[in-house]
Target: 3-isopropylmalate dehydrogenase
Amino acid sequence: MTTYSLLILPGDGIGPEVMAEVRKVIGWFEKSRGLSFDVSEDLVGGAAYDKYGKPLADETMAKAQAVDAVLLGAVGGPKYDNLDFSVKPERGLLRLRKEMDLFANLRPAQCFDALADFSSLKREVVAGLDILIVRELTSGVYFGEPRGIHADDNNPDNEGGRVGVNTQRYTSGEIRRVARSAFELARKRSNRVCSMEKANVMESGILWREEVQWVHDNEYPDVELSHMYADNGAMQLVRNPRQFDVIVTDNLFGDILSDAAAMLTGSLGMLPSASLGAPMANGRPKALYEPVHGSAPDIAGQGKANPIACILSFAMCLRYSFGLGAEADLLEKAVERVLADGVRTGDLMGAEGGKPVSTAEMGDHIVAALSAL
Ligand code: NAD
Ligand code: IPM
Ligand code: MN
Model:
């Protein structure tokens, strides 16, 4: 029997709370479907800083490189706001992404029918929505050099005397590989890719557009490709999101556009993600799965967090890392069933009112739905 190795990094804030519900789901698949997981757990973010003085220990990094897949909750929180930049919780997550070379971040935004009235947009705009944002994750302004904060010498006109610098930098190879991921995924969906950049103001945007077009013309001429400026893209996402199938974009634009897309689906607490790298020896990609949301300090420790984003991230893990598509479908159906039954965490409470369930109760409902399907 295949045993799948998993490293769980719950992290900070609501991270451990939502991950406890994923543990229940993993337990269900072991007990009821005979799957075998070798699960280990470790610290990341503020929790790792508290113990090791850095947001990701080298031993944890080595473990992440060795397992079939990593599941991460969330990192960060006000307690760590004043830490030196190099040891902030977010640096732990960025190190994992960079050193595992997880260049393709898949952020699907699907509107479950039961939540269509809860979106901040009208039902007729979001009903049936199913888009996939493919965000480049290991380059761009997040990692470009030079970067830093330094004195602005020889500039007496600069009040305060300092400069903050970040560099948007992309190589053609970085653009081509993430473009290929987007085209491959589009072929399994509605076969359309919209690439977003700011080629009207940024040279890196011109290169982005040219290279995506090159990959299309040479390798994926059967996929429909369009280009859009990212600011217009943000507007179009809110105006008529269903015009899109796959959106491919850079690290920073992808961060922002995927939070906007989250709200189309009803709540940030619903959005899963997969961060994929190049295939390993077993043919599966290096991978980390995490909800799109953060550590939600405003509701942490209160049992209010919606665990669905994290549970759906595990469904993506079943599909992309373990090749268990039927099991992934089953888990997604269980979530859909629970929502259709009107079960809601606080973030999903709309005008209809009712009593929200806790994080743990939502997890229990999903496990019960798995058994009932
Ligand atoms: P956030 O996503 O943590 O929260 C934004 C809002 O959404 C909050 O009102 C929160 O209560 C709500 N929310 C988020 N997830 C929810 C869930 N599962 N259920 C119910 N409500 C939910 O974003 P933020 O407040 O900008 O950031 C807080 C901290 O998290 C910061 O330190 C930030 O750097 C970090 N962060 C981490 C990640 C990550 O680990 N991948 C992602 C985003 C932000
Ligand atoms: C995300 C987060 C991260 C990002 C932070 C926490 C580093 O916002 O995963 O979307 O900006 O990529
Ligand atoms: Mn983000």
User: Anything to note?
Assistant: The longest strand covers residues 3-11.
